[in-house]
Design brief:
transmembrane; membrane; about 270 residues; PAP2/HPO_sf; globular; 10 helices; Phosphatase PAP2 family protein
Length: about 270
């Protein structure tokens, strides 16, 4: 493991910086502090942007803590790595193995890219360019984050004897888990506001969570990742997803309304809240 200590320091600095900004904004909102004109206008962030950026920073900081714990193993964070692997190996069966291999195959790079590509095309046809851009940016981030952090960390995979798949690259993070969280997550995020029925929204969110969980568990079952690999993938991927969703919401609310044609009411700009 490389650069874990430096990343943990960076994550802590980002978290402290966000807390400082949040305290100043809340104090200004309560009238406890008065800022100059430049800062007064420069520090006007809507609540969703503040809390969305906070979620991104918190998840990144959590990821840096897990990675540092992996570097300093054994400890309370990594203590479950070996027991989880042993439990998965002990509960294998031919039928379950075939199912998990199929999940892992379709939940890998090809499957998630196919989902992202299809979502972008459908959204463009529906003239939802901002939503299509959010899916494209989130997907591009996955393509950068996974190989970058694999090279930075260089963590070894579980023993070859426990693996049911051939994986030549580094173990952390799990590309399957991170890619599923980000891509399935962003597709669900842009889809939910278009659904009017509350039960459909709940169903989409539940289905997305189930897909991400199943794909992640398939990597543990096949013995190609440690449990902390998946945990790191969820926190790192969650940080990126939170950043993209926050930017998507901010862009949507700042988009000016189109001027109305003569004799017609002004067209409303669709917001992420639907």
């Amino acid at each position: 493991m490389q650069y874990a200590d430096a990343q943990q320091a960076a994550g802590l600095a980002m978290a402290l910086g966000w807390v400082l900004v949040a305290v100043v904004l809340c104090a200004r909102q309560a009238g406890l502090v008065t800022l100059g004109p430049a800062l007064h206008h420069g520090l006007r962030l809507p609540g969703p942007v503040l809390w969305g950026s906070g979620a991104a920073v918190a998840l990144y900081a959590a990821q840096s803590v897990v990675v540092d714990a992996v570097e300093d193993a054994p400890n309370r964070v990594t203590v479950l790595d070996r027991p989880v692997l042993d439990w998965m190996v002990a509960h294998r069966s031919p039928g379950l193995t075939a199912a998990m291999e199929a999940v892992s195959r379709w939940g890998g790079t090809n499957g998630t890219l196919l989902l992202a590509g299809a979502a972008v095309v459908v959204l463009l046809v529906a003239r939802r360019a901002a939503d299509a851009a959010a899916v494209a940016v989130a997907t591009a981030g996955v393509a950068v984050l996974v190989p970058l952090f694999k090279d930075v960390y260089g963590r070894s995979r579980p023993p070859v004897a426990t693996r049911l798949a051939v994986e030549p690259d580094a173990s952390l993070p799990s590309g399957h888990a991170l890619g599923a969280l980000v891509i399935v997550g962003i597709v669900a995020v842009v889809l939910v506001p278009a659904l009017r029925a509350a039960w459909l929204r709940v169903a989409v969110v539940a289905a997305a969570a189930a897909v991400v969980l199943t794909i992640s568990l398939s990597r543990l079952y096949l013995g190609v990742h440690w449990a902390t690999d998946v945990l790191t993938s969820w926190t790192l991927g969650g940080a990126w997803l939170a950043a993209v969703v926050t930017a998507w919401w901010w862009a949507a609310v700042r988009t000016p309304r189109r001027p109305a044609a003569p004799g017609r009411p002004a067209a409303r700009t669709r917001s992420p809240q639907g």
